[in-house]
Amino acid sequence: MRVSIYVPKSGMLSLLNKSCYWECLLPSVAGVSGRRIIVGVSGGIAAYKSAELVRRLRQSDADVRVVMTPAATEFITPLTMQALSGNPVHTNLLDTSAEAAMGHIELARWAEAVLVAPASANFLARITYGLADDLLTTLCLATEAPLFVAPAMNRVMWQHPATQHNCLTLQQRNVTLLGPAEGEQACGEVGAGRMLQAEELLIAMAAHWRHGPLAACQVLVTAGPTREAIDPVRYISNHSSGKMGYAVAAAAAAAGAKVLLVTGPTNLSCPDGVKCIPVDSAAQMAEVVKTNVSQSQILISAAAVADYRPVVVQDRKMKKSSPELNLQLERTEDIIALVASSKDSPFVVGFAAETDNLESYALEKLQRKGLDMIAANLVGEDMGFNKDDNALTVLWQDGKHEIERADKSIVARELIALIAERYHAKSTS
After folding, report:
1. Parallel, antiparallel or unpaired: strands 113-119 and 389-396
2. What residue spans of 118-154 are helical by DSSP H?
3. Which of 251, 257, 250 lies closest to 272, judged by CA?
4. How confident is the model at residue 147 (pLDDT cuts 50, 70, 90)?
5. Does 315 lie in the same domain as 406?
6. CA geometry: angle at 197 spanning 14 and 160, to 5°?
7. How far apart are the first and last CA of the chain?
8. Kind plus residue range of the DSSP H or E element containing 300
9. Which of these, 16, 175, 243, 278, is most buried using a 10 Å CB contact count?
10. What is the phi/psi pair of residue 308, to 5°?
């Protein structure tokens, strides 16, 4: 019995000695930029290669956390990995500095991918049988992020039927095996069992995001508030920070989509891998959406677009001359309803921010505007706008899914996974 594995393209290993190798590979590994990646290090002499792996990931602008088994610390020190990753190294299953002392849960939710390199024969056996006797194995069981393992061991250990059986079982569970490569080993023997080089691991990781659930899609996301001018100084707006919409755009890009983010005024930086078009008013946002929506398969309207705007905008600052001021307002264009009612409408996802009757109001909006899906959240004291966390009730025709309160990046990833599932279901129906 043999397991199928990722192997480098022909000639790749011969390039490793060329000084230009890393520079030539930069476009190939750009997919890891901005990704949250946990590097797990198990015990084995190949642990020294993990230092270079972490350095390369950081060089590619990935956010890296390192988790080491007790055996791994015998081969390379946590201090080395901390210096290279720029973050504290995790070794203890119960972390008193973490929330509720459950660091493995925090790390599991934080990660976009877990890469165990090297993955020893012992680690592969323990994870195959669901053992959770240290932080790394517990983390691998607790995370919903993709799991990659880079085997590294003596050639006889790799070829042993037990190891082959374990690897085949892991692959059947959607664990991705990266390697091993063939060559001279630390024990002096020659054969399969060498851990892949850092560059090869990065290429494989980047390829994962190029083939995500939304890889074939262009996604248009709106985010943030709009500002409706009263005069050159004043405007009507709302409390939206844009954090949820930006998190959704980042999660869509992580799922492989080509993402255009149309954003109202915020203090946020454009997410990596996302094209941003800034706007101020509802009219400007509507114009950009109408111009670009025909190229998009999915529209996610997370922006808090103003419902009304002043009929007349003063060209000079209004002076405070009266105890009362009356403004005549008119409705702004309903962007999402316009798109949803168009002949070749994309898959349309709306947002509903409510202070009460969350589900009933959201369901009414879903049906009235003809949306494919709506994500509803409560706003008010200690929730919603300007917060780093959120909770969503996601509704579609004859369907519902609750996303528990968590960091908005985590909520966004779960929402995007659900959108991808519903989008593909509709496309094939």
Report:
1. unpaired
2. 121-128, 135-142
3. 250
4. very high
5. yes
6. 105
7. 39
8. strand 298-301
9. 243
10. -135, 155
Structure tokens at 132: 């959770």
Model pLDDT for residues 168-189, shown as the tens digit of each residue: 999 988 898 998 988 877 777 7
Catalytic residue among 24, 140, 167, 187: 187
How many separate domains does the chain show?
2
Same domain, 358 and 270: yes
Beta-carbon contacts of residue 339 (< 8 Å; ≥ 6 apart): 289, 290, 293, 299, 345, 346, 348
Tell me, yes or no, if the pTM score tops 0.85: no
> Alpha-carbon dihedral of residues 183, 187, 193, 194, nearest 10 degrees?
-60
Residue 14: the pLDDT is 37
For residue 419, give the nearest of 353, 377, 379, 371 by alpha carbon. 371
The yes-or-no answer on residue 167 being catalytic is no
**What strand order describes the sheet that includes 274-278?**
274-278, 258-263, 218-223, 298-301, 347-354, 373-378, 389-396, 399-407
Given 189, 210, 231, which residue is the final one in a domain?
210
Question: Are 350 and 336 in contact, with CB atoms under 8 Å apart?
Answer: yes
Of 210, 239, 256, the position where a domain reaches its end is 210
* pLDDT at position 266: 95
Question: Do 273 and 261 form a contact (C-beta atoms < 8 A)?
Answer: no
In sequence order, what are the residues at sequence separation of 6 or more whose Cβ sits closer than 8 angstroms to the Cβ of residue 347? Answer: 297, 298, 299, 372, 373, 419, 422, 423, 426
Tokens standing for residue 343: 């002949």
* Residue 131: CATH number of its domain: 3.40.50.1950
pLDDT single digits (tens) 74-113: 999 999 999 999 999 999 876 655 544 445 678 888 898 9
DSSP H stretches of helix in 153-242: 155-159, 161-172, 198-210
Structural domain boundaries enclosing 175: 30-210
**What's the sign of the alpha-carbon dihedral 155, 159, 162, 163?**
positive
